[in-house]
Amino acid sequence: MNISIIIDKSTFQSLSFEEIYRLSCYYKHIITPVLTMEILGDLKKEVQEGKTPSSERVKDFANKLFPMETIVNSHYKAIIKGELLGTPASLDGRPHVDIKKAVASESGMKGFLINESEEEKSIYKWREGNFTEADHELSALWRMTTTQEDLLERLKKSLKSDASPKFADFDELDKYVCKVLDEPLIQEFLLINLLENYDIDPSSGVQIFGRWNQVGKPMIKEFAPYAFHCLRVDTLFLFGLTSDLIGTRPTNRVDLEYLYYLPFGHVFTSNDKVHKKLVPLLLRDEQKFIVGPDLKQDLKNIVEFLNNLEIDERRKYKNVPPIIESSFTFQLWKEFFNYPIKSNWNREISEAEQEMMKEKMREFEKALDGDNIELESSDDAEFILKKSWLSKTDPCYCGSGKKLNECCIPDDKFKEIAIKQIKDQIKKEIIESYSNVDHVRFSHATNTNLPAIIFVYKIANLDPKGLNGLLRCFKDEELKITATLEGNLITFSFIENNGNEFITLEPIPCSLKQLESFLLKDYKQICVLDGLLNPQNLRDVIIIIPEEGASPRQILINGFKI
After folding, report:
1. Cα–Cα distance between 490 and 276 in angstroms, integer?
2. Can you point out the beta strands (E) in 375-525?
3. Staple 452 to which of 362, 392, 443, 521, CB 3.0 to 4.6 Å?
């Protein structure tokens, strides 16, 4: 059960850490790409005396975006292009996400794995205060292009003429815009307008026009309902600008971008003047618009109510709101789900049920690494998987409202789990890297070099993550290798100094004569190197050196047995 909510920056920055956490418990918080850009834009704000430094402000904002409780919507331009090419967009309050693949679980259930978006990757970095040079440059560019004082003034002058229609209010404006966009004779012009306005490449444009002609040149609102919604938003804005219903404040153009995402939420909240005027014209009947201060007050009341409860009692309201008749959130749940009448919110879950749920989650987790399967429609999906990372300072998953390291997972336990997860990820990267190897070679010791096991890549398959992973885990530790041989295929296993197997690679081709010669000498120390098959003669091997004059990166092995 989810009520999806879209929040603009004016509301987002007004909410406290606790308030936005409770919002994320009772709504599905959809993060729009424009919100992340507005947050990043603060990185280049001038630091006024006594104010929080810009980088700290961005970090604080990012820490209020909880990965486990939020979902990043796809960029509107990608959705428009996909829809025009024939992939329908959902316009019923469900977020539009980038699907990585369809997978099947062990029991035969089918579902989707969601791609980690670039916005999510950035949020993880910003939460740690990690800002790249690219972040700083993008922030500067964003502020430069969105704060030009005369930007909308110049646009208004270029559009306005003596013949421009005048409107008394927004209702009159909306009626005019709907009439214009419903004119059958201009549908081809509107389609051209969509291709130009939303940066659709010429090759895709040809396909789109071919598809439109093939289905009988229908009205754009029928051919591509989401693209039509965005077109309507832009047309309302432009006519509103020329008729002085919308002002020329530079950030009005940025604020407009939030409205492209309206179809993907049940609730939209903002305290922006332009939003207050335009949003009611664009909402479906079942959608709601909440003024930012009203939402903040509601969440503040919920937080105060819950903080007066004992922790065990508070945990009951992790996934459902407290029953407060005056609460806007409670009333929404009542309307959407007939809560609490048709709800099992206060039902005790038995240990057997809990174990069954955990087992099902483990089954879905295994499906993450499964092969891509065919799934005809998103409606056929029985589950959706989204991988998120949890910080120790995020709110605890139990619903206590405390930070994770102050509640269910103390610092030492969190560190243990984190190290295991990092190690598991490194193991996966090592296996994936060495699966791209063309063959392995064995080189004898010289006066200047240690004997070496060289994993040889073709240039198109070159992947340094294997050696990088070994270096991260074993740079200053003892490591041994064992191997098995079947025909000319050798399978390596790396063994830790405690005797436990760290990882086993996929079988790799090798020269049996080279291997036999190598094993004749009982080397006490061997290095592992990456090599590149000479792209010119496909015979010689070039040892990869990270920078000119440096030594090759290598991991030292204390023992090799086959």
Report:
1. 67
2. 383-385, 439-443, 452-457, 479-486, 489-496, 501-504, 508-509
3. 443
Q: What Rg, from alpha-carbon coordinates, does the chain have? A: 29
Q: Could you give the CA distance from residue 524 to residue 276 in angstroms, rounded to a whole number? A: 75
Q: What tens digit of pLDDT does each residue of 83-114 get? A: 999 998 989 888 888 888 888 888 888 888 88
What are the start-end ranges of the H helices in 268-386? 273-282, 292-307, 311-314, 328-337, 351-367
Residue 428 burial by CB count (10 A; 0-12/13-18/19+): exposed, middle or buried? middle
What residues contact 188, with CB distance under 8 A and at least 6 apart?
Answer: 217
Q: Are 226 and 80 in contact (CB under 8 A)?
A: yes
Q: Is the dihedral of CA 116, 397, 334, 351 positive or negative?
A: positive
Q: Quick count: other Cβ atoms within 10 Å of Cβ 361? A: 11
How many helices (H) and strands (E) in the chain? 22, 18
pLDDT range class, residue 377, cuts 50, 70, 90: low
Average model confidence (pLDDT) across the chain = 86
Q: How far apart, in whole angstroms, are the C-alpha atoms of residue 79 and residue 257?
A: 14
Q: Residue 233 in contact with residue 261, Cβ under 8 Å?
A: no
Q: For residue 539, how many other CB atoms are within 10 A of its CB?
A: 7
Please report the pLDDT score of residue 158 as a whole number. Answer: 54
Q: How many other CB atoms sit within 10 Å of the CB of residue 338?
A: 10
Residue 219 DSSP class:
-
Angle between helices 187-197 and 225-242 (to 10 degrees): 90
Distance, in Å, from the CA atom of 24 to the CA atom of 295, rounded to the nearest integer, reads 13
Q: Tell me: pLDDT of 374 over 90.
A: no
Q: How far is CA 471 from CA 167, 268, 419, in A?
A: 68, 48, 15
CA 194 to chain CA centroid, nearest Å? 26
Residue 386, token pair as written in the block: 């989204």
Q: Report yes or no: 340 and 26 within 8 Å, Cβ to Cβ.
A: no
Collect all residues with Cβ–Cβ distance below 8 Å to 207 and sequence separation of at least 6: 85
Q: Using 50, 70 and 90 to split pLDDT, how confident is the model at 486?
A: very high
pLDDT score for 141:
67
**Which backbone phi and psi does 517 adopt, to 5 degrees?**
-65, -40
Beta pairing, strands 508-509 & 501-504: unpaired
How far apart are alpha carbons 553 and 550 in whole angstroms?
9
Please answer whether residues 184 and 149 qualify as being in contact, where contact means their C-beta atoms are separated by less than 8 angstroms.
no
Backbone φ and ψ of 195, nearest 5°? -65, -40
pTM, full prediction: 0.79
Task: Kindly tell me the sign of the dihedral angle through the C-alpha atoms of 170, 163, 198, 44.
Answer: negative
Give the count of beta carbons closer than 10 Å to the beta carbon of residue 556. 15
Alpha carbon 337 to its chain centroid, in Å, reads 28
